[in-house]
Amino acid sequence: MKQFNNEKAITLIELLVVTAIILILSAIILPSYQIGEKQLALQRSTHKLAQDIRRTQEMAMSAKELPGGGLPDGGYGICFDKLPSPSIFLYADTVPPAERYGTGDQIIETISLEKEVKTKEVRLKKPGNNVSPARVSINFKPPDPEVNLKGGTDEPFDEVEITLSLKTDENQTKTIKVNKVGLIYVAD
C-alpha cells in the first residue's frame, strides 16, 4: 500500500509577502493612531480645564471654607499666569477688593494639562478692546456669584477666551469661553 504525503507547507516567499503586508499596514495605521491620540489629549485637557473653571465657580457659590477655616472675602478664582513660566492655578481671593489674583491670595491647587498640550493664548475681550496680558484672572465672588474677568489691571472685561493647542501642532486648537455672567463653554 502506497501512502502519499499531501501535506502542504508555507513557503518562504509566502511568509515574506505576509510579513511585508503587515509592515505596510502598520506604517499606514500607526501615524494616524498617534495623531488621534494627541487630538484626544487636546480634547480631554480642554474639557478638564472647563470643568476646573466650573468647579471654581461652584466653590464660590457654595461658600466653600478655606483649608485652614474661614471664607475668602473675594471668592475663588482661576489664574492663567505666563510669568515666570506658564501656569494655571485655582486660588482663594483673600485680599479683596481687587477681585483678581494678587500678592497674598492663597493658591489652593495647581492645574496641569496633558503633556502634549499647552496654553496657546488667553485673551480678554470687550467691545473695542481685546488684550492678551501676562496674567488673567477669572474670579467668582459669592453669593450669586459675581464674575470678574481681569488682566493685570482693575479694568473689567466681558469675556475671556482660553485657547489650548498641541505642542507639536499649534494649528490644532480648542477654545474655552467664559463670559461675565458665568457661562463656561467649549467653542468648536
**N-to-C terminal Cα separation, in Å?**
78 Å
* CATH top level class name: Alpha Beta
Q: What's the CATH H-level superfamily name?
A: minor pseudopilin epsh domain
CATH architecture, please?
3-Layer(bab) Sandwich
The CATH topology label is minor pseudopilin epsh fold
The averaged pLDDT comes out at 88
Largest sheet geometry? 5 strands, antiparallel
Query: What level of helicity do the residues show?
Result: 25-40%
Helix- and strand-based class?
alpha+beta
> Proportion of β residues?
25-35%
Total count of domains: 1
Shape: elongated
Q: Unreliable stretches, pLDDT < 50, 5 or more residues?
A: none
Query: Tally of extended strands?
Result: 10
Q: Helix segment count?
A: 1
Give, in spatial order, the strands making up the sheet with the most strands. 3-2-1-6-7
Order of helices and strands: HEEEEEEEEEE
The radius of gyration is 26 Å
Task: Please give a handful of descriptors for the protein shown.
10 strands, single chain, five-stranded antiparallel beta sheet, 188 residues, minor pseudopilin epsh fold, alpha+beta
Structure overview:
With 188 residues, the protein is an alpha+beta fold. The longest helix has 50 residues, at 12-61. The protein contains 1 helix and 10 strands. It has a 5-stranded antiparallel sheet, with helices on one face. Strands 5-4-8-9-10 form a 5-stranded antiparallel sheet, with helices on one face. It has a single domain (36-187), classed as minor pseudopilin epsh fold, CATH 3.55.40.10. Helices cover 27% and strands 33% of the residues. Strand 1 and strand 2 (87-92) form a beta hairpin.
